[in-house]
Structure of Lipoprotein:
Amino acid sequence: MIRPPVRRAVDSSRLKRLVAVALMAATLGACMSSTGPGKNDPLPVKSRQEALDWARQLMAHVAQSAGIQINGEPEEIGFSPCVGRNGESAPDDRYTLLYFVHSDVPGIARHNEVVRSARDLLTQEGLTITDFREATDEKPFAALGARHPTSRYYATVDSTSDKRMALSVTTPCLMPPSSSPSATG
């Protein structure tokens, strides 16, 4: 049975969230592979700058949705060569990106609100929650980990002290664009 569409008023904050989600989905589609994680599947192609821009955008979106602000600490950017399960590597400059930012978030009760909001957002956007822990008096650190099932990126939101949280994203192995067309024989 087809239900008639329901018309809802869209306030400006909801509209901003919808635009951000659409932008992120379009960016992710261009950034990451949409196929399953097969061993010999081609890697997504992205320059390091494009991957970094995407990571910044994603973490800003998570922070905004959780009601926190990224603080002025320097972002932590780590590009690493891809290494296979058995330690193998390829000479083609493939890489992963680990990107961290920090937020000043006082109080463990607020940390719990942040990880709940981030969990809800990432779940709505199709990620699978792999780790979720709210802070308690005995364990004062909240933690959230989520993996995208097809793009295979991994996002985290964690307490680093009772006044601070870290947000991070790790990409799967990415291939930089080739600088010139390959010569064929």
Observations:
- The chain is about 30% helix and 25% strand.
- The first helix runs from residue 12 to 31.
